[in-house]
């Protein structure tokens, strides 16, 4: 073993150990390792920051922005809410919402797919009277499996495609992953829905699990806009929409006067005010369904802050908690002139489960109160920070309009078709789509930067030059030769399965991008040493890098559901281990058929 090889083995081993330790951010570990490599001379200084211009890094960032544009258009939420029904048996519910999650995660970031569907799943569980812990883990696993089916479904696929281009001269196309990925996704979701969910442990006596029925409600006033489909209908005719959104219509206000009773048989006019009660998510869904808006007042919104805010993002709702040291504690919203200064309106207050039906602008706000604010997204972020409150959730209430859906889907599908037909590279195609999203307002300038997962981008950009250096000094060849030596005398399939199992173990402990960066070059070199098809080995690592089901740290989706589902660290392996074993058993024959040795 040469000196550069020894240094790089030690450096890569140290990086791997620090990533497993988890006490230091993975982007800082990767960047620190890269700089050490430059200082000791094993990574050429001219190549140190080449990773930031690597196509894989650029595509990962652009796909996240495109995912946000699709969410903002309202198309994804519209589809999801129409498909999910609370009255279904749990097995059918898991199959349906898992299928929707897998389909979405094939084309948008799988974390975004889970974030979109998780509130719907929790709300469905609440209506069905069951704990969300029975369905959140199946949903998270389904969105991870869905990412296996396309080039952009998950970052490891993009990384594998660039490795193939370097090694074989051509990247993977958009749907090259589909034959194996679909088999894995369908088999995995069916396994979970048909009985796998029963392996999820029920809550123990000493564990605090969120109650599905415990949601803080607000009473808010919402104005009927000129474009609202509610105009001309009776209040009683909105029962289906209110039930679907899970809000209660308390009454109707017209010209400052509350109509008698709940105005069930009053005909709705433009400018009427609905008084509704519901959670933040429910209110947001009702606003989208009927094209409602915040109640107008006689305060002009002419401050520079408000004008800037109006140009920086569509409307949203933010649920936030007042801390003891918050600027607004023991004062009223009226004293801060939030609407006139920032274009932000206080819609509702919830205090220890109690809501207020009277006008709230002059009510004194106390520490511990939950506030429901509405306004442009950028303005909300500024106001929450300025007030010193703690945000709990943010929900877009941009109405789903046909032109937004058409533009969002048209640009995205156009990018996929152009790349699949080899007119232009996918990097260029998705970049054009993102520019189109920004030009049409489907993503704001702030979102273009906020939606990028910068720690993952920096980690990937730092690890790629290290991986290239490791390969250039023969490090991957040494690892490949070791795998070949251990499996000598057996079929190459044994080496493929062995590499896959090692990758699965890494993926349960490491970020899946880091796992792919480490395993991808080894897969290609092992295949070359055995004189077999590199695609088979590379696809094996692609599948294995996404089989992170044993722990809450193996994938972000596993982490996201830990709190809402009330899961402990040891709950994941009970469903995750059988699922991982099943995926290896199913994927190996599929890989050998689609990508024969």
From TrEMBL:
It is a multi-pass membrane protein. The keyword Transport applies. Residues 207-292, 304-389 form the RCK C-terminal domain. GO terms for cellular component: plasma membrane. The chain crosses the membrane at residues 7-22, 28-44, 51-70, 90-118, 139-158, 178-200, 405-438, 458-486, 493-524, 536-554, 575-595. PANTHER family: BASIC AMINO ACID ANTIPORTER YFCC-RELATED. This is Di/tricarboxylate transporter.
């Amino acid at each position: 073993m040469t000196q550069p090889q020894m240094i790089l083995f030690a450096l890569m081993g140290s990086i791997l150990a620090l990533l497993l330790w988890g006490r230091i951010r993975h982007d800082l570990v990767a960047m620190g390792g890269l700089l050490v490599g430059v200082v000791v001379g094993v990574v050429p200084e001219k190549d140190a920051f080449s990773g930031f211009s690597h196509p894989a890094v650029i595509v990962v960032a652009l796909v996240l922005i495109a995912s946000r544009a699709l969410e903002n258009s309202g198309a994804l939420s519209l589809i999801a809410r129409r498909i999910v029904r609370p009255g279904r048996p749990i097995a059918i519910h898991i199959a349906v919402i898992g299928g929707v999650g897998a389909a979405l995660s094939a084309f948008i970031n799988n974390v975004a797919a889970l974030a979109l569907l998780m509130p719907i799943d929790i709300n469905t569980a609440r209506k069905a009277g069951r704990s969300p812990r029975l369905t959140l883990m199946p949903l998270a696993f389904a969105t991870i499996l869905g990412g296996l089916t396309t080039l952009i479904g998950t970052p490891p696929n993009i990384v594998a495609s660039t490795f193939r281009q370097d090694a074989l001269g051509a990247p993977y196309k958009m749907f090259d992953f589909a034959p194996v990925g679909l088999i894995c996704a369908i088999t995995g979701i069916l396994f979970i829905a048909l009985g796998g969910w029963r392996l999820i442990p029920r809550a123990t006596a000493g564990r605090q699990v969120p109650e599905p029925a415990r949601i803080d409600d607000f009473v808010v006033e919402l104005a009927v806009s000129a474009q609202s489909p509610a105009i001309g209908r009776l209040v009683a005719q909105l029962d289906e929409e209110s039930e679907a959104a899970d809000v209660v219509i308390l009454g109707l206000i017209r010209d400052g006067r509350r109509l008698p009773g709940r105005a069930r048989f009053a005909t709705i006019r433009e400018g009427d005010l609905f008084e509704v009660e519901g959670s933040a998510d429910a209110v947001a869904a009702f606003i989208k369904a009927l094209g409602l808006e915040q109640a107008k007042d006689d305060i002009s919104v002419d401050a520079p802050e408000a004008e800037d805010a109006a140009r920086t993002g569509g409307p949203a709702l933010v649920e936030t908690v007042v801390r003891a040291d918050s600027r607004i504690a023991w004062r009223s919203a009226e004293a801060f002139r939030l609407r006139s200064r920032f274009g932000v309106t206080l819609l509702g207050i919830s205090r220890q489960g109690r809501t207020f039906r009277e006008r709230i602008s002059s009510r004194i706000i106390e520490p511990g109160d939950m506030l429901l604010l509405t306004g442009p997204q950028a303005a909300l972020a500024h106001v929450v920070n300025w007030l010193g409150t703690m945000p709990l959730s943010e929900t877009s209430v941009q109405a789903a309009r046909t032109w937004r859906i058409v533009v969002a889907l048209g640009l995205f599908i156009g990018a996929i078709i152009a790349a699949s037909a080899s007119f232009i590279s996918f990097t260029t195609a998705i970049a054009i789509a993102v520019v189109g999203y920004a030009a049409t307002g489907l993503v704001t300038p702030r979102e273009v930067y906020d939606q990028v997962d910068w720690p993952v981008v920096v980690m990937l950009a730092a690890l790629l030059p290290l991986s290239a250096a490791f390969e250039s000094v023969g490090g991957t060849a040494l690892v490949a030769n070791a795998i070949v030596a251990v499996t000598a005398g057996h079929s190459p399939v044994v080496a493929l399965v062995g590499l896959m199992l090692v990758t699965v173990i890494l993926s349960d402990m490491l970020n899946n991008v880091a796992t792919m960066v480490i395993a991808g070059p080894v897969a290609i070199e092992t295949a070359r040493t055995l004189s077999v098809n590199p695609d088979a080995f590379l696809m094996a690592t692609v599948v294995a890098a996404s089989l992170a089901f044993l722990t809450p740290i193996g994938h972000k989706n596993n982490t996201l559901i830990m709190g809402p589902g009330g899961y402990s660290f040891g709950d994941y392996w009970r469903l995750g281990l059988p699922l991982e074993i099943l995926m290896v058993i199913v994927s190996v024959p599929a890989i050998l058929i689609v990508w024969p040795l």
